[in-house]
Amino acid sequence: MIGIQATSIYEPALKETAVDLAGKTGIPEQVIVGKFGLYEKRIAPDHLHASDLAIAAGKKILKDMDPKAIDVVIYFGSPFKDYPIWTASSKAQYELGTSNAYSFEMMNVSSCFPIAVKVAKDMIRSDETINHILLIGGSKESMTIDYDNPRSRFMFNFADGGAAALVSRNATTSEILASSIITDGSFSGDVLVPGGGSVHPVSTEVVEKKLHYLDVPDPIRMKERLDPVSIPNFTRVIKQAVERSGAKLEDLKVLLPLHTKKSMFREMLESVGLKEEQAVYLTQNGHMSALDPCYGLHLAQRNGLLKNGDIAVIVSAGTGYTWAATAIRWGGPAS
């Protein structure tokens, strides 16, 4: 069976606590903990970039196998990387010693991990020469936030880290099942970095006006349009991923979502009939672009949350806006 055989994460040593964020933002600590759902997040040092964080996670998986057995390396992490027009995947292919692999990148901001898992499964299923695909991602998105900009308030949980997953043809740890993906491109202009691209090329004005940070041009309008569809779309992709896998929603045992505000996390769980102890909520890590569900899967395995035969769903959403979910069966078919 084709499945996720192994996962790994890399956590930078530096922690930024809710107290630290309160000092930066003027938001009370109890609000950051209670509403943002964040006790602390990790911040990478200046010398570590998205590629380095992804490679550090990938190395942990390759301790247990020959790097030359990897057929493909796919970078699925943050689009905010070491350089603007550059491939982290090719650097990783070299530094990880995966000399028999070719590499490429997938970029769909925060929604990318469930999509990357689907793509890896589909590649293995359609190409008999591929047996092992290494998915790697890095995030240094703490650098993209201007804490003086109240329009970007919902992004104050953005953090740094690395994550990796090994997708294998003859997996024994899990089986990748079905996926569901929704895109609503009417949100494509709602969250972006205004400066540095072809619309507003790098200039003194871009820097002076802080256009090189993430921004939400009209947060009230975005909220008015996004709130009515966000939970319904999360629910739809989770339900469809499970049902397309030949199961029922009530068979879902574990949810591994991106880090969101606490109220949305609870509403998402309620919508699919799960309790908080049946999910991983990254209160100690924050939001790391597409890495969150991979972190959740790794922590769920480490903490014994997943039992043989359990159906779990990795789910995320990325600005633009895309909602994506992929179901897995832990340990393969239930006995």
Automatic annotation (TrEMBL):
InterPro entries: ACP_syn_III_C, ACP_syn_III_N, Thiolase-like. Its EC number is 2.3.1.180. GO terms for biological process: fatty acid biosynthetic process; secondary metabolite biosynthetic process. This is 3-oxoacyl-[acyl-carrier-protein] synthase-3. NCBIfam families: PRK06840.1 (NF005308). It is an enzyme of class 2 (transferase). Residues 104-185 form the Beta-ketoacyl-[acyl-carrier-protein] synthase III N-terminal domain. Keywords: Acyltransferase, Transferase. It comes from the Bacteria. Pfam families: ACP_syn_III, ACP_syn_III_C. Residues 243-330 form the Beta-ketoacyl-[acyl-carrier-protein] synthase III C-terminal domain.
